[in-house]
Backbone:
């Protein structure tokens, strides 16, 4: 006996190279897990407690938003307005703006406050089909506040019935307490902060910023090595403003993803192909920061590097909570194909979140996380700049209020 | 006795040069018209049938979307996917794609069908705060179908209680029936189609495409002259792919707006400043078409040309129904300031729609078209890439279901 059976759906399974569409298809759920799926013609005689007629609608895996900074306090809207009025980033930093403003506000907030602030953000993402989300630390930049951010991320997952993957991003800027002592800061992260976070079970992935701005690529290795010793998957922000060889460095570490990559070299990309490192595309920040360069999509394609997509939701460079917009920007702005974008926000994103083969597909044995869309074809999800929300969202077999 | 009184609001009146904020303010409505507004401290003793506590929320004029091709049949999603897969526009046109595909589908649809297809699009726009909309013809390209598009636009207005302004856009491409005879087509429009549309009261503005592609700038004058003789305001699409002097030509005609303008010259812009012609910014199409060039915002600013913003909703170059995204793209993509963007989608857009001083502001005597937003400051409406919909939408004093 199945719990739920969805009939007459167009299943976008993400199996194989493309979208793996089965139509007309059916999908059965038992104990929150996909128990059967296939063509209607092969539907077994098993009964179901509840039957749902999908009416020919498209049924896709829930989106996996594998790069977000969802937990933060304060806002940067005044700064945004000042910048468009002509103020430089340097001027804003001198006035106490920029990332340190977010750090200050985040440090001042309790875990419960962080959760309360981030909850409506999470709901916005979920209302457009996100069923798994990665959330980073990185605005605390000291022991207590980094742990509080990760605790908030875990609590958001528990309270909202959504799978949350946490990334430890202590190392992307150097906090004021360690000004001029970036190596000491990395050692502190590796020897004090990360172990404390691990002891509390707060970290799933170790992230970092390899940009040669405040933390040097070789300094990042202090933390990455500690993380790998602890068995954590690695990822990093890199090559966003210039080629620092970061994508190659991440490939050499066997990272699950290298993120941004506007300036990555072909040698780095070839290395990523070898290591199976995913190229995480974040068009929201390229647009918001008015950066002149797009990532080398053609090179990723030519070398067989899989591309993922994410909101990169954060207050300073990518204030977006719209998965559909991210799909549209992936295509219209970055020139990914709709198939690349849709795979990039599901099955490939799962890899980038350290969950390869565990979410982001329709497959027997995987959690029943899927979304019904009112569309004529899958590419329509990428076509509209700001599309319409889905008809129904199911997490672990259970329908969600939108 | 007022019908409705809104108290404790932050009123964004759009009076003066900036946003004209009054806080805390109150606004009273009588017979669908703004009967009083001002600071709470000056609130008259007049009673109201209904009182609404705005709780300090921002109350803005409804958006005026003054450039849309909302009425069309068929879709261009397959074409979008083929293009991202590497097909050229020429190949797609040879396969029957492009604007002629939309023309064919639109010609095949009845007025009621066109209305039925466009209604959910209109609802999407209204749900994000649009209270006045301009809708163009231009996919019919023959007498009956052009008139049907305009009839559909009028019907959309009547059925949805929203003010619709119609633009006659018969002249932007030459239909197959007049292939190679663009001058004859323009004469036909001026002598047959426009008079028929006017006789039925279907046209508020005369639009056109001045791009030197299929219709030459001097040919457009055949229609524009006929339109001006009939007392219609003029506007046009121009200088999108190269400088054809179109913005200057429109300024010389005293046009209400010149639209697109990526390549307009400084001389044209100086002429627009003199004639009071609004520069209509359409970032959706620049993004979707992956065009390399942005319009010369700085020149508009320097010469004192007012900038408007619109969705430009259409299936081939700007598939967007999100006013909030348009505000965000106006700022993050085109580098307008939030004040310019917000004025550009209200008071300046009213000018571009031929409704200067009639909508797009909070002022006594104007229709009570306004929207309550859950934001910390007006710039927040431009900050999020894909923001949250408003809390309440009032058209002619009456609350709308969202």
Residues:
């Amino acid at each position: 006996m199945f719990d739920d059976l969805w009939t007459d759906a167009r299943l976008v399974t993400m199996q194989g190279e493309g979208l793996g569409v089965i139509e007309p298809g059916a999908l059965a759920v038992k104990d929150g897990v996909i128990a059967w799926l296939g063509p209607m013609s092969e539907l077994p005689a098993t009964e179901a407690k509840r039957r749902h007629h999908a009416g020919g609608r498209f049924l896709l895996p829930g989106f996996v938003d594998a790069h977000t900074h969802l937990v933060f306090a304060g806002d940067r809207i005044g700064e945004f307005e000042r910048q468009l009025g002509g103020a430089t980033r340097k001027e804003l930093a001198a006035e106490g703006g920029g990332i340190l403003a977010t750090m200050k506000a985040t440090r001042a907030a309790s875990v419960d406050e962080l959760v309360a602030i981030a909850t409506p953000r999470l709901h916005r993402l979920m209302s457009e089909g996100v069923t798994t989300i990665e959330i980073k630390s990185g605005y605390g930049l000291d022991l207590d506040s980094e742990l509080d951010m990760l605790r908030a991320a875990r609590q958001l997952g528990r309270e909202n019935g959504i799978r949350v993957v946490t990334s430890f991003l202590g190392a992307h800027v150097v906090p004021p307490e360690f000004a001029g002592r970036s190596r000491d800061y990395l050692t502190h992260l590796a020897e004090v902060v990360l172990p404390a976070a691990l002891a509390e079970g707060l970290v799933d992935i170790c992230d970092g910023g390899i940009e040669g701005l405040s933390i040097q690529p070789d300094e990042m290795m202090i933390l990455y090595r500690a993380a790998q010793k602890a068995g954590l998957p690695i990822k990093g922000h890199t090559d966003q403003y210039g080629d620092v060889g970061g994508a190659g460095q991440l490939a050499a570490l066997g990272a699950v993803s290298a993120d941004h990559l506007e300036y990555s070299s072909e040698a780095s990309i070839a290395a990523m192909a070898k290591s199976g490192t995913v190229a995480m595309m974040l068009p929201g920040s390229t647009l918001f920061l008015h950066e002149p360069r797009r990532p080398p999509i053609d090179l990723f394609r030519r070398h067989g590097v899989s591309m993922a997509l994410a909101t990169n939701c954060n207050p300073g460079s990518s204030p977006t909570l719209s998965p559909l917009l991210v799909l549209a920007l992936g295509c219209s702005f970055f020139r990914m194909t709709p198939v690349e974008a849709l795979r990039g926000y599901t099955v490939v994103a799962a890899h980038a979140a350290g969950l390869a083969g565990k979410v982001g597909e329709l497959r027997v044995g995987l959690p029943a996380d899927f979304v019904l869309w009112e569309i004529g074809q899958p590419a329509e999800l990428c076509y509209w700049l700001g599309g319409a929300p889905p008809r129904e969202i199911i997490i672990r077999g259970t329908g969600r209020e939108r």
